[in-house]
Each structure stands twice: as structure tokens, then as C-alpha cells.
Amino acid sequence: MVPKIDILTLFPEMFEGFLNTSIIKRALDNKLVEINIHNFREYSLDKHKKVDDYPYGGGAGMVLMCEPIFNAIETLRRDNTKVIMLTPSGKTFNQKMALEFSKLEHIILLCGHYEGFDERIKTIVDMEVSIGDYVLTGGEIPAMAIVDSLTRLIPGVISSESLVNESWNDNIVDYPNYTRPEEFRGMKVPEVLLSGHHKNISEFRDFERKRLTEKSNMMNLEEVDNEK
Ligand code: ADE
């Protein structure tokens, strides 16, 4: 089974660099994942290909209309499809979700723009996802973040060894890495890493993972405190 991802957007050109670079490009070339970009404007039945309109009740901006998005999803959806709406009010994305998504047969990612979606579009999606508590101009960057993180977890895309100790598996971060030179501007590589003593190296890395995880969790807590 090759996971298939359909992305619905009004700005397909935003994905060009993303799909044609590095690991994502290689995964596509090796047919380990299939990614299709669709402009949902093409699913508008309006003669001017209209996709948005003024909000009922007044207010700023334009709202994405139901019809083009319902048409696009109904055309692309199959039996095992998960339809995901990208919205700042959705469930916050994390590594566990990336792993779950990497095992799905077919995903449709719906990218919004303007003031957002007509609320009724939520009735045709399976899940609403946010990549964090901040507002972007659209769902394209969130879609890229999600596709990037799930694609690298598809078996064969990167070496399985790279995935073992990385950050946020089991909610802990990766250990710190160093490469040559041994000393840079007075900063030395920890002695133990030069020792060739595997048990000590492994203990050092475990200790550092715990220390850096606590530090990362503390930094996030401090932010919450500041908001009080
Ligand atoms: N669209 C705009 N901001 C977003 C966010 N933070 N996550 C997902 N979709 C978005």
C-alpha cells in the first residue's frame, strides 16, 4: 500500500519547492508516497469559479463557500479516506499523530484561506487539525508540515535507525550531537563521546535526553506562567 495524499488548496504553486526538494522528492520518485495537489477552485460550478463570499451577519473578510469544497471532497474521497481540515482551532498536531497519519491509506488535506471556512464544511471532514496556537495566512504551511512529518515516517523513506532516538518519540527529545572539529571557538566535544566506550556513551546520551526534555518542558511552562 502506497499512502496517497490529496491536498486541496487555492495556491498550488506554494507546494512546488516543497515537493521538488530533498527527502520528499526522493520519496515521491521512489513511489513510497503519492501526493497530488488540487486547486479546489476547479470544483466551483460558478461561471467565474467563485470560491468565497461575504459572511452572513457582517464582519471582516471573505468566507470559503461550501459547494467547491464539498464537490472536491466527494470526487476524491474513497472508502478509507481521512479528510483533515487545517484550522487554528483544530486538535494540535504532534509526533503521535504524525505516526498515525503515516499508516493511513488515503488522506485529504483541506487548506483554508481568508477568514476561514463556512461552518457547514465541518460536517464533511473527519478531523480538524492545527499545527500550533498561532494564526497563519492559510493552511498550506500546516499541510506541508504535516506531510513532511508523516512522509519521513513511511517505511523506506529514511533509515529506520534515524527514527529510533529522535525527539518526541515517547515524549522525550533527542540526545545532542557533535561532529568535527573536536574544539570550536573554545567549545569542546564532551570527552565521553571521544572515548569509544559504548556503555558510557549510551549512559551520557540517556542522561542528556532526560535533561533536555526537562528543559524543553520547563520552557513551555514558563510561557504559560507569563500569560497569567
Ligand atoms: N490555518 C491558519 N493557521 C493555522 C494553524 N495554526 N494550523 C492549521 N491551520 C491553520
What does this structure look like?
The chain is an alpha/beta fold. It has 7 helices and 9 strands; from the N terminus they run E-H-H-E-E-E-H-E-H-E-E-H-H-E-E-H. The protein has helices at residues 16-19, 22-29, 66-76, 95-102, 140-151, 160-164, 198-227; strands at 4-9, 34-39, 52-53, 63-64, 81-92, 106-111, 127-130, 183-184, 187-188. A 5-stranded parallel sheet has the order 2-1-6-5-7, sandwiched between helices. Helix 4 (95-102) links the parallel strand 5 and strand 6 (106-111). The longest helix has 30 residues, at 198-227. The structure holds adenine (ADE). Adenine binds next to strand 5.
Task: Please supply descriptive tags for the structure shown above.
228 residues, alpha/beta, five-stranded parallel sheet, two-stranded antiparallel ribbon, elongated, binds adenine
Shape: elongated
Strand order of the largest sheet: 2-1-6-5-7
User: What is bound: which ligands?
Assistant: adenine
Largest sheet, in brief, is: 5 strands, parallel
**Segments where pLDDT lies below 50 for 5+ residues?**
none
- In percent, how helical is the residue content? 25-40%
- State mean pLDDT (0 to 100 scale): 95
Please report the distance between the alpha carbons of the first and last residues: 48 Å
How many helical stretches?
7
Specify the structural class.
alpha/beta
| Topology as a string of helices (H) and strands (E) | EHHEEEHEHEEHHEEH
Strand content: 15-25%
How many E-type strands?
9
Whole-angstrom Rg = 22 Å
